[in-house]
Amino acid sequence: MEKPQDPIPSNLDDAAPSSRSLWALWHQTPLYVRIVAGMILGIGAGLALGPRAVDLAIPGKLILRVLGALAPALILAAIIHALMTAQIKGKTGARLVGLLLLNTVVAILIGLFVANILQPGQHSHLELPTAASTASKAAAPDTLTQILDNVPSSLLGPLGDGGKVIGVIFIAIAFGFALRPVKDQPVRNVEDLVLLFLNALIKILSWVVELVPLAVFGVVANIVGTKGFADFKAMGAFVIAVLLALLLQGVWYLTRITLGSWVRPLPLLRGMRDALVMAFSTGSSTITMPVTYSSLKNRVGLRDQSASMGALVGANFNNDGTALYEAMSALFISQMLGRQLTIGQQLMVVLTSVVASVGAAGIPEAGLVTMTLVFHAVGLPPEYIAILLTVDWFLDRSRTALNVMGDINVSCLLDGKVRQTPAEADAEVVAI
Ligand code: ASP
Asked: What does pTM read for this prediction?
């Protein structure tokens, strides 16, 4: 998958100098700094406005709605592209699929276990939207609610029978701008076509992600203004629970590596330092991919086939950190709503988290997009994902590092218990 291109629409070049420099400043500041700034300003606005800050939550809802609309299309394109391009052959291919599936299921089970034991959502309480509040909104919709209603909740919805014209226009504008810079690019085959669609979606997603600091500002202002700081206690507990679960999954990887390959954990971690730090600092396992591959091959000393199968092929499907996080989030929000998910519903969370993690592109915040699927599957209102925006900038980086560790794990296991001989390594260099 390619690195998303610069998300600045080309028409911004015509903007006035002052607005251009303001945009440049906004764009040059790292996203996490902008999100933290949004949080701090949101706390200030919440304290100053009190319950009147409730309307500031609307940008967050809008962004969640757009993310939810992008999710099915993004998953569709990502899985089609990964399956079309992956060079999976014979026995190694079957082994790869088995390892990926086992790791993902273990990750989700660890996530559910930790969330069930620690119950991070018990520290605060969210209200489910009641029929009465929905009805009163329907009686007198304000302008912002009307805008919200016209933002498509699914990408293909507005194109169907009785679709809303404004929704169609939103989609046309987004794709029009996303495809403008590549309008002269030749489309030679079906793979190019799928990649074009996937990249257009990733580009639209990157624009939406640019707005996340604004959403965080509104969400935090609304929470502080209407409920004070109780939710943050729960968020703190959630962050600790996710980090603990990620750590346990890391222990699982290293144990499996110790038992099933010739690689030893400490030299491995030393050799993979660059890739792990890069994953954490970029929040993208796709951008980190070349570093993961070359470190596995050159620093750790894996065979080329094992390194490429795990770090290049498997990486397209392998997002254990994302799967674990999505399952934990569903449980966390349901705990905050005072609803315990039944075993059946938790099984549904396992199934949908596997699919959602396979379909999550290796780019920042992709897990937040596909999470809407998990929420829908167990009847949780996806608008509550907004509250996770406040900590996602940090947890995204942490789960990305674990996603990369998952690729490392698979590569080491595929390499087996016997290290390649110097003669084998020399033959590989000649063959390349
Ligand atoms: N950022 C993650 C990755 O690149 C995907 C996610 O958002 O979970 O692996």
From this structure: 0.77
